[in-house]
Structures are given as structure tokens and as C-alpha cells.
Specification:
Blueprint (H helix, E strand, L loop, with lengths): L2 H8 L3 H9 L5 E6 L2 E6 L3 H13 L4 H13 L4 H38 L5 H8 L9 H4 L7
Antiparallel strand pairs: 1-2
């Protein structure tokens, strides 16, 4: 199957397909036609691409997904391994959720401070908490002055 057929059937771009191939996620063979050389993608390419997209939708990176993909297609991805990999990903995603909750909380706190006092310079307060000496974070007041000489 040529790259155009793969594109039609999976919705990726040619560059995306080439990238996946460069990572070893899909495979093709050279196909000579006169003076041109095309890439002939193996029959399992669409299955591999569907599994890659499924893995990405679950939060797996392409690098993480390659050994999983190979094990699935080789029939060596045991239920025990699937559970272990799934639990690890669940823990990673839960940690990301907690990190995002903290970021949301900080943004909500900043919003509340500014709603209570719109003239408050929250960035100057932040910089001072990091031991920077700041008089103001407004662009006009904090812009470096040109040396006159």
C-alpha cells in the first residue's frame, strides 16, 4: 500500500506517517517503479496506526507505545503486563491531575486577589518572594534605562 492510500485510510499526513516510520512504529519496503522509488507499507500498517492512536488517546507517548505495540502484535502482551502498564499510566495521569489542580488553585487565588484589589502587583510580590528587589512590574517602570554617555 502506498503512502497516499495510508493517508486516505487513517487520516494522518504523509509527514506524520514518515515520522512514525522513522521511529520504527510502522514499516515499509522500497518499491521501484521506473526511475522512482516509492514506499510500500505493510498490510498491518493500518492496524498499527489504529493501535498507536488508541495508545495516544490513553496518554501514552510514542516512545512508550512502541514496545507495547510490538508486544500486542506479537501476541506477547500478557494480561499481567497490561495491568502493570495500565496501573503505571493511571498513577502518572493521577499525578498530572494533582499538578493541574495545584496550578488551577494558584490561578484562582491570584484572580481573587486581583478582584479584591485590582491595583495589586501580584508579579512584584512573586518576584519579591524569590528574593528579587522589585519596585514594580509595570512595563514602563521596570524597563531598563538606556545609558547616556
Amino acid at each position: 500500500m502506498l503512502i497516499g492510500e495510508v493517508v486516505k485510510n487513517c487520516g494522518l499526513t504523509k509527514d506524520g506517517i514518515r515520522y512514525y516510520e522513522s521511529m520504527g512504529l510502522i514499516h515499509s519496503e522500497p518499491l521501484v517503479a521506473g526511475t522512482r522509488i516509492y514506499r510500500d507499507y505493510k498490510d498491518d500498517t493500518l492496524i498499527r496506526l489504529a493501535l498507536i492512536e488508541h495508545g495516544k488517546s490513553l496518554g501514552f507517548s510514542l516512545k512508550e507505545g512502541k514496545p507495547i505495540l510490538d508486544a500486542i502484535l506479537n501476541g506477547t502482551f500478557t494480561a499481567e503486563e497490561q495491568i502493570k502498564v495500565g496501573e503505571k499510566k493511571i498513577n502518572e495521569l493521577q499525578a498530572k491531575i494533582e499538578e493541574l489542580k495545584c496550578k488551577i488553585q494558584k490561578l484562582e487565588e491570584t484572580r481573587e486577589l486581583l478582584q479584591q484589589d485590582p491595583s495589586r502587583d501580584v508579579y512584584a510580590e512573586f518576584l519579591e518572594s524569590k528574593n528579587f528587589t522589585v519596585t514594580s512590574c509595570s512595563a514602563e517602570e521596570s524597563a531598563p534605562k538606556a545609558a547616556v554617555g
